[in-house]
# Entry
Amino acid sequence: MSYSHILVSVSVSPESHQLVAKAVAIARPNQARITLVTLSADPEMYNQLAAPMLEDIRGVLQEETQQFLGDLIARAEYPIAQTVCATGELSEQIFDICQKQKVDLVICGNHNHSFFSRAACCAKTIVSNSKVDVLLIPLSAV
# Structure
């Protein structure tokens, strides 16, 4: 099956390179578009007591995310059409992007290898509610 637009859910971790490499391998034969989506870290999640420092922390986290996405793009050796730094619930963001941008394949990674953790992971929500094909890649530390 050939795909025209692939959405890859990445995080700021070395394993994301595996996901992008898989997307490139699938996209290259048909010159499909690739979009990367990641969640922006929200410093409010980490410490409600550090309000005066939150703006500085937010800036640092966003800069770190942008640098990591830049590295993913540079190493892809394939054009990445778009990157999206989303906030909120990842699965909802993925569904929204799929609908608005005519994505026909979503690629996600899964660190969860036990039955219990598999049942609770975000990928389960994406797989069970997606209107497009989903490729779930088991990840191991690089």
User: Anything to note?
Assistant: The mean pLDDT is 83. DSSP finds five helices and five strands in the chain. The helical segments are 16-27, 54-76, 90-101, 115-120, 122-129.
